[in-house]
Amino acid sequence: MIHVALYEPEMPANTGNIGRLCVGAACPLHLIGRPGFLLEDRMIRRAGLDYWPLLELHQHASMAEFERAVPGRIWCVETGGRRLYTQVRYQPGDILLYGSESRGLPPEILQRYAQQVLVIPQPGPTRSINLANAVSIVLYEALRQIHGW
User: Fold this and answer.
1) What is the mean pLDDT of the chain?
2) In what order do the strands lie in the sheet with 117-119?
3) Can you give the CATH number for the domain in which 26 is found?
4) pLDDT tens digit string along 93-117?
């Protein structure tokens, strides 16, 4: 199993889409810190459709609490990463950690996991890929490797 973790997500529709993705991939979703919305927001339910009740959702007040609760290798996915997400050998129990839509991950987290910061290449002029799309790209590469698809 791969864990997907979002650090202080800001957009309920993205979180809803990611939750739906996690249900389809049989992966738990972890929300760390304070989301920029209420979990009862209708945009989450709309994006997550009727899959939202099936989601294994965990909330953690802080990064420290998350790290204590969920052991495993943490891979930070960030636009400033230097290692391609395809250059990793993913293992069951790995954690894919993503920052908020506008700020990304805090510098202290990126420093702590400096050797584990991954990037999705973007040859075009955009600054970043939509968060839900970024989660799906890396998550399905990890699942492909683990399951031999």
Assistant:
1) 92
2) 57-60, 29-32, 3-7, 95-98, 74-77, 117-119, 83-84
3) 3.40.1280.10
4) 999 999 999 999 999 999 999 999 9
Amino acid (one-letter) located at 85: Y
Supply the range of the domain harboring residue 87.
Answer: 3-147
Strand pairing category for 3-7 and 57-60: unpaired
CA angle, residues 14, 120, 88, in degrees to nearest 5: 110
CA 125 to chain centre: 23
Give the per-residue SS3 of the chain.
CCEEEEECCCCHHHHHHHHHHHHHHCCCEEEECCCCCCCCCHHHHHHHHHHHHHCCEEEECCHHHHHHHCCCCEEEECCCCCEEHHHCCCCCCCEEEECECCCECCHHHHHHCHHHEEECCCCCCCCCCCHHHHHHHHHHHHHHHHHCC
Total count of domains within the chain: 1
Contact by Cβ (8 Å): 1, 27: yes
Question: Which residue type does 78 have?
Answer: E
